[in-house]
Fold:
Amino acid sequence: MTRIISITLCSLTALALGTSCGDSEDRDVVVEGQAGRLGGKPNIVMVTVDTLRADHLSAYGHSRETSPHLERLADQGVLFEAAFSTMGTTLPAHLSIMTGLYPHQHGYVANHGAMSGGFQSGESRRAIAEILASDGYTTAAFVSGPTVSKVTGLDAGFQHWDQHEFDKLQSLSSTSRHSSVTTDRAVAWLEAGPEEPFFLWVHYWDPHEPNIPPAPYGGQFPKGSIEEQLIEDRKIRPEVLLERFDDEELARLFHPDWGREGGDIELPPIDHDAVVDLLNRYDSDVYATDVALGRLMDCLEEQGLFDDSILVFTSDHGQALGQHDWLEHGRIQSENVHVPLVIHFPGEVIQQPLRVEDVVSVVDILPTIMARLGTDSARELLTQASGEDIFSGEYLRRFAFSQRSVRERDWELGEDTDGLKFGLTTSRWKYYHRPDGADELYDLSTDSGELIDVAAEHPEVMETLERHVLAILSRRPFTPEARQGPESEELKRFRETLGKIGYTGE
Structure:
């Protein structure tokens, strides 16, 4: 039976954040949320999936069976029910996962930040692969999409790097590869017998638009009643989407084959049926990704590696899919920052399976992993990270911090696009801080869809949460280095690619 625990301790601040300190019959005492250290150096496998919102996984309650293999992993590990990303954007979120730092600390607050130079490590800003490599680990990465390619600097510390290459920027679909291809390459590397210990990162792209699930997954989820309920519950309005976005942006979501053959954009009707089709294609891509995860897990088991490895599964961000009158990501409502997080630990370091209810952040992944190792390099990363070891027995943070992507696009309409915006999620509240505008507050206990702003009714909660946001922003902010220089051919190509997928405003 899967145990459900609350791993945090009680404080006055916790009460202000709308959380509870009382035990219930299905909760264990806090000390059982602790975990010990592992002897030696276990292999570490990290799987990140681009654009995967947690609530479209059956492991997280989705009524479609989209993630049977993730459920298999959760049955042997720890599933975090309330994990949140630092940003709804790929590169900044992945850097937070890899460094344990918030975007304003590692220095990348939009994908296009890499156009003036990729991530460069420095004091108190090192990536996990660098630290593990210095500690004797073999490091390898297999990535599927353009915004995690080598030009971004995410290759820091990886001795073996395998990314999708394409000759011609013909369409959005040409910029990435399917999870089956990436898995083929990662499995081949594992079967070749890499020197242990190793750190393996596998990145999948499938749930990202344009959502063209290949055979046999294209018809995995035909039209049914579930889409009708989702559209109603999420207040998705096709007519507003048609007004808000231009033809090129609409084509990325609703006309997935656009760009393959060139020519003018010929959009289908942007109506109820178009949203149904989008939801079905998205779920089919989620299922295809889960199949790839299953193959990777099977390989680890066949090679005798699974039981003694730390295996992490998470996502950089979600996808709006029409919710809040939005189509893609970049924003920080729950559909864009609530991400899956499942970790399998080897041995008896912690009793598994386990479900953790408390709010955690992707910046907590690294310290939670590295604290199990107990090496000098692990201690270095624990000092660097803004995240915390969730299983230290002293985990006190009751919230997850997120920042809206910093980018301006002429076609992007709406009140949510001007100026900075920061979010804080607790077990009850979702708070938005705008330095140049009115703050917002939503009571998730009665309004999980974030539709009714109750800021005026809870001034004390607003004051408490604003203090937390300002404290985070003042902590070790990154001062941009002089990365700007002559634009290389690689950077020019990267800029063209970002333009094709809508990340530069061009």
In short: The chain is about 30% helix and 15% strand. Residues 40-397+489-500 form a domain with the Alkaline Phosphatase, subunit A fold (CATH 3.40.720.10). Residues 244 and 415 are 11 Å apart (CA to CA). The chain has one domain: 40-397+489-500.
